[in-house]
Every structure is written in structure tokens, then in C-alpha cells.
Automatic annotation (TrEMBL):
Protein name per the record: Uncharacterized protein
Species this chain originates from: Marseilla massiliensis
Recorded superkingdom: Bacteria
Length: 369
């Protein structure tokens, strides 16, 4: 028997709030926290920080509320996490002070265990300053024995901290620390972004109507950090982009050319189209706009369907940084969009959009559980 969410009407197998509405309520509660409530939660976190590694509640939710939603952490919490050897929540060490950074690096260099070393690599990457960069470069060029037990190099672990580096050790940014939420509003009044609008033409694989998955006005002052000189539309086939592996590309020139680049790797030319006209209408009618105020860089990590422009990606599987097909440089994440916010009836998962400002190329990657 099918039921509907009492708040948004989504079809589902139970009569309670759907996952998306439930998470929206949790987010609203986190946003509404008072300074006194946040201090109380921060004090409790310092006393029970070890519970974060086991993803226990309420500590995990409190950390997400304080750090992801409000951008609040403090050096004492970072030192408490270090003392308790908490490595699973590597974000806790984001821009940690020098003493924490130096101890993380010392433990990493002294490690003999691949699993521990992998966690510490991510923690050092989250700290992210030039000293941490130098340590990761050293380990890339002179691997320790534990490297044999890892799947990727330190330059890939650096992605967690929003950067990587080339063979000469030069820093290359792959995420924007500036972040704005995509939230419900009035698109007739705020034109900074527009999602899910029809694009001329049809997919060469499945015949689906093409879509401008997102249009970004680079002249809006809030979005100046993206470095887009004008309005930029990023186009795709909404049906086939979910099957493209490892990445689908689009040409997206500000105030100019915008089109998907076919063929999509891994997609057959006679692919079935699951994206119906009704889904197209639902996506076109969305009421999503850019938030008025800047959010913390990890705001989009609060729950799986968090939508953001800029900031860090909430990678459902693993963080993946695509390379530009024209210049070969790593591309920078500019947006993440949960499919359920565009169309209730389509599918789960998130579309991650990266961009090369030099070549005007966009990369689109779909992930789901």
C-alpha cells in the first residue's frame, strides 16, 4: 500500500514524514539554536567527543548543527578530539591551530597502520595550510610502507580539504570555501540562479528533452567568488546524466554557448528514457533560489539532499574531482543538487557540478546510495 508524505505529498511506503521533509525539520531546528543552546552542545561535545567516531547521538547531530549549519567550532574542541584520537570526522580539524596540525602530522609520519594513516591523511588535509600541504607532498614523493595498503595517493586525500597539488607541490584548489544554500523562495524576484529549465534539443542517447540543470548569474555579487563573467547555463540530459560514468561534460560559456557534450561515456545510444514530460514540468516549476546570506563551507553536508552553490560536496560515495577534458587540470566544485528537490518522482541521489573557468567546461557526476 502506498502512502503520501503529509507535508509534501511524496508517494512512499509509510504515512510519516518523508526523509526529505524530516531532514528539513531537523535543519530548521539546527538553524533555530540559540547561543546558549549552542554553548551547551559544544561543552557536551568536548566531554564526549569520542562518541563522534561511533556516530552516536546526540553528539553527531550536535556536531553537524554547530559546524555544518553554524560554522562554529573552537580550538578546545579540536584539541579534545586530537587527545581522544578522533579521526573519523576529519572536518573537525578544518583550519585547526598549529599545535593540533603539528601533532596530526607527527602521528601520520609515525604511523605503521594503513587504516590509521588514511584517516590521518584526511585530517591533515582538512587542516589544509601550507605546512600540511608540504607534509602531504613529502608523503606523495617519499611514500611510507603503509602506502601499499591504500588505494590512492596523498594528493587524492587532499580533496577532502578542498585542494590537491601537482608534481611540483603547487596547491590546486578543488572547492570554494564560500557557500550559499539553494532554498525555496520566489524565482521571479531573485535571479541569481535558476534550476531545471528546458534546453533546446534532445538527447542523442535516449531522446529526452535536454535541460539547463542550473543557470548561474556570475554578475550577482553573492556569486562573484565563482569567477563567472556573466550568466552561465550548464546543460545535460536529466535522464542519461545519472548513468554517465565516470563523468558527463558540457560546454558552458558565460553569456554564450551552452550544450551537453555527447556521447556520454558508459551510456548506449538506444538508452531508455525514464524522465517523463510530467517530471520535466515538475522540474521547470521549482521555486528554488539562492540564499540571501552566505553559509558555512560545509553547510551542504547536513543531509544528503542539501543543495548548495560553492562549499564542500556531501559525497554520497567518495569525493571525486574530475579533470578538465581540454586542459587536464582538476576542476572546482561549484554546485550540488539533490534530484528529489527538482522532482519528487524521479530518483534519489545528488548531481555534483564542477567547472573549469579557463576552458568553460562543466563536469557533472551523479552519486546515490
Amino acid at each position: 500500500m502506498e502512502h503520501h508524505c503529509p507535508k509534501c505529498g511524496r508517494e512512499q511506503p509509510h504515512d510519516q514524514l518523508c526523509y526529505f521533509c524530516h531532514e528539513q525539520e531537523r535543519l530548521a531546528k539546527a538553524i533555530a539554536l540559540t547561543d546558549e543552546e549552542m554553548k551547551e552542545k559544544a561543552d557536551n561535545l568536548k566531554r564526549h567527543v569520542k562518541r563522534l567516531d561511533a556516530f552516536e547521538e546526540p553528539e553527531t547531530y550536535d556536531f553537524a548543527s554547530l559546524f555544518y549549519v553554524h560554522g562554529r567550532t573552537d580550538e578546545e574542541l579540536q584539541r579534545a578530539a586530537l587527545k581522544a584520537e578522533v579521526y573519523g570526522h576529519d572536518e573537525i580539524y578544518y583550519h585547526a591551530p598549529a599545535d593540533v596540525r603539528d601533532e596530526l602530522i607527527r602521528r601520520l609520519m609515525a604511523s605503521t597502520n594503513s587504516n590509521e594513516a588514511g584517516q590521518l591523511l584526511a585530517c591533515v588535509a582538512m587542516q589544509g595550510d601550507d605546512v600540511s600541504l608540504k607534509a602531504l607532498v613529502e608523503l606523495e614523493n617519499n611514500p611510507r610502507p603503509w602506502r601499499k595498503g591504500l588505494y590512492v595517493d596523498p594528493s587524492v586525500y587532499a580533496w577532502d580539504g578542498g585542494f590537491t597539488f601537482d608534481k611540483q607541490g603547487n596547491r590546486l584548489e578543488v572547492a570554494h570555501p564560500e557557500c550559499f544554500a539553494i532554498e525555496t523562495g520566489n524565482p521571479d524576484e531573485d535571479h541569481a540562479i535558476r534550476l531545471g529549465q528546458p534546453h533546446e534539443g534532445r538527447c542523442r542517447h535516449c531522446g529526452c528533452q535536454l535541460m539547463d540543470i542550473i543557470t548561474i548569474d556570475g554578475h550577482d555579487p553573492r556569486l562573484a567568488f565563482l569567477g563567472l563573467d556573466g550568466k552561465t547555463s550548464i546543460s545535460c540530459c536529466p535522464n542519461c546524466v545519472q548513468f554517465a560514468y565516470p563523468v558527463a561534460y558540457a560546454k558552458a560559456v558565460p553569456n554564450g554557448e551552452s550544450h551537453p557534450i555527447f556521447p556520454y561515456e558508459g551510456v548506449e545510444d538506444d538508452a531508455e528514457n525514464y524522465w517523463t514530460d510530467e517530471m520535466n514540468d515538475a522540474a521547470r516549476a521549482n521555486r528554488l533560489v539562492l540564499s540571501k546570506e552566505r553559509k558555512p563551507p560545509f553547510y551542504g553536508l547536513f543531509f544528503d539532499d542539501g543543495n548548495t552553490v560553492g562549499g564542500f560536496g556531501n559525497w554520497i560515495q567518495d569525493c571525486e574531482v574530475p579533470t578538465c577534458p581540454e586542459c587536464g587540470q582538476p576542476m572546482k566544485l561549484i554546485a550540488q543538487i539533490g534530484w528529489s528537490t527538482l522532482c519528487n518522482d524521479f530518483m534519489e541521489g545528488t548531481l555534483y557540478i564542477s567547472y573549469c573557468n579557463n576552458c568553460h567546461m562543466a563536469a557533472l557526476q551523479h552519486q546515490q546510495t
